[in-house]
Specification:
CATH architecture: Beta Barrel
Number of strands: 10
Oligomer: single chain
Strand content: 35-45%
Radius of gyration: 15 Å
Order of helices and strands: HEEEEEEEEHEE
Number of helices: 2
Distance between the termini: 26 Å
Mean pLDDT: 81
Strand order of the largest sheet: 3-4-5-6-9-10-8-7
CATH superfamily: Sortase
CATH class: Mainly Beta
Number of domains: 1
Length: 203
Protein backbone atom coordinates (compact mmCIF):
# COMPACT_ATOMS: atom_id res chain seq x y z
CA UNK A 1 0.00 0.00 0.00
CA UNK A 2 1.35 3.44 -0.89
CA UNK A 3 1.83 6.10 1.77
CA UNK A 4 -1.14 7.99 0.34
CA UNK A 5 -3.46 5.01 0.54
CA UNK A 6 -2.20 4.21 4.05
CA UNK A 7 -3.24 7.70 5.15
CA UNK A 8 -6.58 7.25 3.43
CA UNK A 9 -6.99 3.89 5.12
CA UNK A 10 -6.41 5.33 8.59
CA UNK A 11 -8.64 8.34 7.91
CA UNK A 12 -11.43 6.12 6.64
CA UNK A 13 -11.21 4.11 9.82
CA UNK A 14 -12.37 7.14 11.78
CA UNK A 15 -15.24 8.11 9.50
CA UNK A 16 -18.86 7.10 9.12
CA UNK A 17 -19.83 6.56 5.50
CA UNK A 18 -22.86 8.63 4.51
CA UNK A 19 -23.04 8.89 0.78
CA UNK A 20 -25.01 9.66 -2.31
CA UNK A 21 -28.48 10.34 -0.90
CA UNK A 22 -30.97 13.13 -1.32
CA UNK A 23 -29.75 15.24 1.55
CA UNK A 24 -30.49 13.01 4.51
CA UNK A 25 -27.75 12.16 7.00
CA UNK A 26 -29.05 8.78 8.06
CA UNK A 27 -27.89 5.22 7.66
CA UNK A 28 -24.20 5.48 8.59
CA UNK A 29 -21.90 2.52 8.30
CA UNK A 30 -18.90 2.80 10.58
CA UNK A 31 -15.74 2.54 8.53
CA UNK A 32 -13.81 0.17 10.74
CA UNK A 33 -10.21 -0.57 9.83
CA UNK A 34 -10.47 -3.64 7.58
CA UNK A 35 -8.09 -6.54 7.44
CA UNK A 36 -5.64 -6.57 4.53
CA UNK A 37 -6.65 -8.54 1.47
CA UNK A 38 -4.28 -11.36 0.65
CA UNK A 39 -2.08 -10.35 -2.31
CA UNK A 40 -2.66 -13.77 -3.82
CA UNK A 41 -6.35 -12.93 -4.27
CA UNK A 42 -5.64 -9.90 -6.45
CA UNK A 43 -3.80 -9.42 -9.75
CA UNK A 44 -0.31 -8.10 -9.16
CA UNK A 45 0.35 -4.39 -9.63
CA UNK A 46 3.29 -5.46 -11.80
CA UNK A 47 0.83 -6.48 -14.51
CA UNK A 48 -1.25 -3.29 -14.23
CA UNK A 49 -0.28 0.15 -15.49
CA UNK A 50 -0.13 2.51 -12.51
CA UNK A 51 -0.63 6.23 -13.15
CA UNK A 52 1.07 9.12 -11.42
CA UNK A 53 -0.88 11.02 -8.80
CA UNK A 54 -3.36 13.43 -10.40
CA UNK A 55 -6.66 14.67 -8.99
CA UNK A 56 -9.82 13.55 -10.83
CA UNK A 57 -11.75 16.33 -12.55
CA UNK A 58 -14.33 14.44 -14.61
CA UNK A 59 -16.19 11.14 -14.83
CA UNK A 60 -17.75 9.40 -17.82
CA UNK A 61 -19.92 6.29 -17.67
CA UNK A 62 -21.30 5.89 -21.21
CA UNK A 63 -23.64 2.97 -20.40
CA UNK A 64 -25.79 5.16 -18.13
CA UNK A 65 -25.20 8.57 -19.74
CA UNK A 66 -22.97 10.04 -17.02
CA UNK A 67 -20.57 12.82 -18.02
CA UNK A 68 -19.92 14.96 -14.96
CA UNK A 69 -17.29 17.14 -13.36
CA UNK A 70 -15.78 15.74 -10.16
CA UNK A 71 -15.27 17.85 -7.06
CA UNK A 72 -13.13 17.00 -4.03
CA UNK A 73 -14.68 15.82 -0.75
CA UNK A 74 -13.18 15.49 2.69
CA UNK A 75 -14.57 14.89 6.16
CA UNK A 76 -17.29 16.88 7.88
CA UNK A 77 -16.93 18.12 11.47
CA UNK A 78 -18.68 15.03 12.77
CA UNK A 79 -16.07 12.86 10.99
CA UNK A 80 -18.53 11.67 8.37
CA UNK A 81 -17.58 11.66 4.72
CA UNK A 82 -18.77 14.78 2.95
CA UNK A 83 -21.18 14.51 0.03
CA UNK A 84 -21.59 16.89 -2.91
CA UNK A 85 -23.98 19.81 -2.31
CA UNK A 86 -27.61 19.45 -3.35
CA UNK A 87 -27.75 21.61 -6.46
CA UNK A 88 -29.54 21.52 -9.79
CA UNK A 89 -26.19 20.98 -11.57
CA UNK A 90 -25.37 17.94 -9.45
CA UNK A 91 -21.82 16.55 -9.75
CA UNK A 92 -19.89 13.58 -8.40
CA UNK A 93 -17.28 13.91 -5.67
CA UNK A 94 -13.94 12.17 -5.09
CA UNK A 95 -13.09 11.34 -1.48
CA UNK A 96 -9.68 13.00 -1.29
CA UNK A 97 -8.41 10.72 1.48
CA UNK A 98 -8.54 7.81 -0.96
CA UNK A 99 -5.92 7.26 -3.69
CA UNK A 100 -6.33 9.21 -6.90
CA UNK A 101 -7.78 7.05 -9.70
CA UNK A 102 -5.06 5.01 -11.35
CA UNK A 103 -2.90 4.85 -8.23
CA UNK A 104 -2.66 1.60 -6.25
CA UNK A 105 -5.59 1.22 -3.89
CA UNK A 106 -9.36 1.79 -3.91
CA UNK A 107 -10.28 5.26 -5.17
CA UNK A 108 -13.75 6.31 -3.97
CA UNK A 109 -16.19 8.53 -5.88
CA UNK A 110 -19.58 9.44 -4.40
CA UNK A 111 -22.74 10.79 -6.00
CA UNK A 112 -26.38 11.47 -5.30
CA UNK A 113 -29.23 9.36 -6.59
CA UNK A 114 -31.64 12.26 -6.01
CA UNK A 115 -31.05 15.89 -5.09
CA UNK A 116 -34.18 16.91 -3.20
CA UNK A 117 -36.35 19.42 -5.03
CA UNK A 118 -33.93 19.39 -7.99
CA UNK A 119 -34.91 15.82 -8.92
CA UNK A 120 -32.58 13.10 -10.14
CA UNK A 121 -28.95 12.97 -9.10
CA UNK A 122 -25.89 12.24 -11.20
CA UNK A 123 -25.78 8.59 -10.03
CA UNK A 124 -29.51 7.95 -10.47
CA UNK A 125 -28.90 4.98 -12.80
CA UNK A 126 -25.81 3.55 -11.10
CA UNK A 127 -27.58 0.29 -10.23
CA UNK A 128 -28.22 -0.34 -13.95
CA UNK A 129 -24.55 -0.93 -14.73
CA UNK A 130 -23.35 -4.37 -15.79
CA UNK A 131 -20.09 -6.23 -15.54
CA UNK A 132 -17.67 -4.96 -18.19
CA UNK A 133 -19.22 -1.50 -18.58
CA UNK A 134 -16.54 1.15 -19.07
CA UNK A 135 -15.78 3.98 -16.63
CA UNK A 136 -13.39 6.80 -17.56
CA UNK A 137 -12.03 9.14 -14.90
CA UNK A 138 -10.48 12.27 -16.39
CA UNK A 139 -7.52 13.58 -14.44
CA UNK A 140 -6.12 17.05 -13.86
CA UNK A 141 -2.95 16.28 -15.83
CA UNK A 142 -4.96 15.60 -19.02
CA UNK A 143 -4.68 11.82 -18.74
CA UNK A 144 -7.44 9.37 -17.87
CA UNK A 145 -7.83 6.28 -15.71
CA UNK A 146 -10.01 3.68 -17.42
CA UNK A 147 -11.87 1.01 -15.50
CA UNK A 148 -14.37 -1.76 -16.21
CA UNK A 149 -17.17 -2.74 -13.86
CA UNK A 150 -16.42 -5.90 -11.88
CA UNK A 151 -19.60 -6.06 -9.82
CA UNK A 152 -22.53 -4.02 -8.52
CA UNK A 153 -23.93 -4.57 -5.05
CA UNK A 154 -26.91 -3.15 -3.19
CA UNK A 155 -26.41 -3.49 0.55
CA UNK A 156 -28.20 -2.23 3.64
CA UNK A 157 -26.42 0.77 5.11
CA UNK A 158 -26.27 -1.08 8.40
CA UNK A 159 -24.28 -3.84 6.65
CA UNK A 160 -21.92 -1.62 4.66
CA UNK A 161 -19.00 -3.82 3.44
CA UNK A 162 -16.18 -1.67 4.77
CA UNK A 163 -13.48 -4.29 4.19
CA UNK A 164 -14.35 -4.57 0.51
CA UNK A 165 -14.67 -0.84 -0.10
CA UNK A 166 -11.64 0.45 1.80
CA UNK A 167 -9.54 -2.71 2.10
CA UNK A 168 -5.95 -3.02 0.91
CA UNK A 169 -5.52 -4.00 -2.74
CA UNK A 170 -2.31 -4.11 -4.76
CA UNK A 171 -3.62 -2.58 -7.98
CA UNK A 172 -5.64 0.51 -8.92
CA UNK A 173 -9.36 0.00 -8.29
CA UNK A 174 -12.43 2.22 -8.24
CA UNK A 175 -15.54 2.37 -6.05
CA UNK A 176 -18.64 4.34 -7.05
CA UNK A 177 -21.20 4.77 -4.27
CA UNK A 178 -24.71 6.15 -4.03
CA UNK A 179 -27.96 5.37 -2.20
CA UNK A 180 -30.65 2.96 -3.27
CA UNK A 181 -33.28 0.50 -2.19
CA UNK A 182 -36.58 1.40 -0.52
CA UNK A 183 -37.14 5.08 0.21
CA UNK A 184 -38.99 6.68 3.10
CA UNK A 185 -39.35 10.41 2.57
CA UNK A 186 -35.85 11.64 1.73
CA UNK A 187 -34.13 8.62 3.23
CA UNK A 188 -32.87 5.49 1.47
CA UNK A 189 -32.28 2.21 3.24
CA UNK A 190 -29.40 0.92 1.13
CA UNK A 191 -26.16 1.82 -0.61
CA UNK A 192 -25.41 0.90 -4.21
CA UNK A 193 -21.71 0.16 -4.67
CA UNK A 194 -19.94 -0.37 -7.99
CA UNK A 195 -16.59 -2.17 -7.86
CA UNK A 196 -14.38 -1.55 -10.90
CA UNK A 197 -10.96 -2.80 -12.00
CA UNK A 198 -8.41 -1.41 -14.48
CA UNK A 199 -9.25 -1.74 -18.16
CA UNK A 200 -6.88 -1.75 -21.10
CA UNK A 201 -9.44 0.07 -23.26
CA UNK A 202 -8.57 3.53 -24.51
CA UNK A 203 -10.44 6.48 -22.96
Amino acid sequence: MTSLSRRAFVTAATASLLVGCSGDRTGPARAERPESTSPSSRPSARTTHVLGRSVPVGLEIPAIGVDTPVMQLGLARDRTVQVPPLTADDVAGWYRHSPTPGRIGPSVILGHVTVGAHGDGVFRHLARLHRGDRIVVRLENDTAAVFAVDSIRTVAKTDFPTDEVYGNVNRPELRLITCGGPRTGEEYRDNVIVFAAPSSASP
